[in-house]
Amino acid sequence: MTLTSKLDGKNKRDKEFREILLSVEPDREDYYTLSNNTPFSNEYTSIVPNVLSNPRDSSLVGIAFDYLARFRIAQFIKAEEVIRGLSATSGFKKLRFPDEHENAELFYSRWGGKVLEFIKDDSMPISQLFEIAVHFAKLEQIARARINKGDINIEYLLFEPAQIEVINDLNNLMVVFEETFMIPEIINKKSKVVFNPNFGVGSLLVSGADADIFIDGTLYDFKTSKEKNLQKKDNLQMIGYYLLNELAIATLSDDIGFDYVHLDIKKIAFYKGRFGEIEYYDVNKHLPYKDVKPKLTEIAEHFKEKQGSLHLAWRADLDAAKRYLEEIRNGKI
């Protein structure tokens, strides 16, 4: 059970959690765009139409684009840590190859080494990573799926080349990304960037929650959908990330041993790759902390008995975390 699956859940507890988020769901009218176009509207121009012949490739492209976007940002700010903790690694581990196996060398040394080479070399074009990103995307899909090893197609995952239309789609998306996201209004060489941020205690309570990227106070979600509208699930997911991060801060997750980097989230945003549009929601303006505090109390109460994967954080001070959660339940924040 993860944040995403809780939002999709039909049981009583999941519906109760969803209600907590619905009570602070951002209003569509409170979003604004960098282009000054009306958010989620027909004022958007479809720069990269989805012309993929296989609908299943849309998901593959979306995940591969996430990798490419993060790798390009990492190249720009020289951040080698981008390759740590990739979901693709979890997928590869599902294949259960020993460390000395040639396929392990392919994944860790050749593919991982190529990404590091790209980050260090400003002259290397992102196109050098297209095939690797597609393989990473396939492995991430395996990481998310409930599938037996015997049902896994190794040839497809590690060796089958990407369809040319997938590569062309990624190329077009990255051209637009370079023009509309890699700009001074969004990022500079000294920007604070956190790749795949998680939310400490908050992430573990929902048994998994990590976002795409955090840059200078804004939490971004990359989208390659052809849809212009604001999707309720996406809206709830992003405000859910925000509240889970506030819970991480309230439980001092960065001080008591959790895998958490402190994030001061001021805005949440969607980057729409096919339109080159960014939709921002100013959380500080529309959701003051006096309204956040009772929601943290509700979340802590919701997870009082069933605490997700919190017990798996063996390196962290779980007693302290539980004590902080009890204080939050009692309104002592």
Description of the structure:
This is PD-(D/E)XK endonuclease-like domain-containing protein. It comes from Peribacillus butanolivorans. There is one protein chain. The chain has 333 residues and is α+β, with helices and mostly antiparallel strands. Helix content is 48%, strand content 8%. A 6-stranded mixed β-sheet has the order 1-6-5-4-3-2. A hairpin with a 4-residue loop joins strand 5 and strand 6 (277-282). 38% of the residues are buried.
Give a concise summary:
The chain is α+β, with helices and mostly antiparallel strands and 333 residues long. Helices cover 48% and strands 8% of the residues. The chain has two domains: 1-48 and 194-333, no CATH class; 55-162, no CATH class.
Number of strands: 6
Question: Uncertain spans, ≥5 residues at pLDDT below 50?
Answer: none
Biggest sheet: strands, sense, closure? 6 strands, mixed
- What is the general shape? globular
Distance between termini?
27 Å
* Gyration radius, in Å: 20 Å
SSE order, as H and E? HHEHHHHHHEHEEHEEHHH
* Strand order, largest beta sheet: 1-6-5-4-3-2
Q: How many domains in all?
A: 2
How are the elements arranged and paired?
Layout lengths: L2 H6 L3 H11 L8 E3 L22 H22 L9 H8 L7 H19 L9 H15 L9 H6 L4 H17 L12 E3 L4 H6 L7 E3 L2 E6 L8 H19 L16 E6 L4 E6 H4 L2 H14 L15 H12 L4
Parallel strand pairs: 4-5
Antiparallel strand pairs: 1-6, 2-3, 3-4, 5-6
Helix pairs in contact: 2-12, 3-5, 3-6, 3-8, 4-6, 10-12, 12-13
